[in-house]
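Hi! If you just cloned this repository, the fastest way to understand the data is to look at a raw example. We've pasted two of them here, unedited. The first protein comes first, obviously.
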Amino acid sequence: MVIKILGAGCSKCKVLEAHVRELVSKHNIAATVEKVTEIRDIMKYGILSTPGLVINEKVKSSGNVPKDEQILNWINEA
């Protein structure tokens, strides 16, 4: 599983990245967490605001930091 955090470095991007990394570690999830910071790469996902959360190349959220429970649900669905 590949989880991507889309964002150039705003505070919400950093919070989302920290939450995802913590959840993956805490729940022993076999996933690679990547940070995508290049605007051209972010634009490929069609989001209009950051942070974006992409799980296995599917955009799950953009523009906000989802609750941990929602992130876990998306991970379990993937």
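Ok, and the second one:
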Amino acid sequence: MTRLEEIEKLLSGMERAEKAQLLKWVVQDLAEAFPGIESTPGVCGEEPCIVRTRIPVWVLVQARRLGVAEAELLRWYPTLRAEDLANAWAYCRAHPAEIDEQIRENESD
């Protein structure tokens, strides 16, 4: 079975909302567009951050890897919205090596 055939089989069992979320991820991945994520010269070492904040994506990703639930992240960072977390996870999926490198660099300091 090819990957496309596997995906077609998975799609047939998904709800409309799941398909919509999948489509959003695919479009973002193809466009390399990550709304809500920005790298600003002179801010946080130009690392990708959540807009309106100085929260680097790598911080959220590492917290998630350490088992911190999304609800807890939203409590820790009151300016964050659930959409911000979804954008951070999408960015990480598209740039895993970059995020891993930022985690290594920042945790060795």
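That's it. A detail worth noticing about the second one: The two ends are 47 Å apart (CA to CA).
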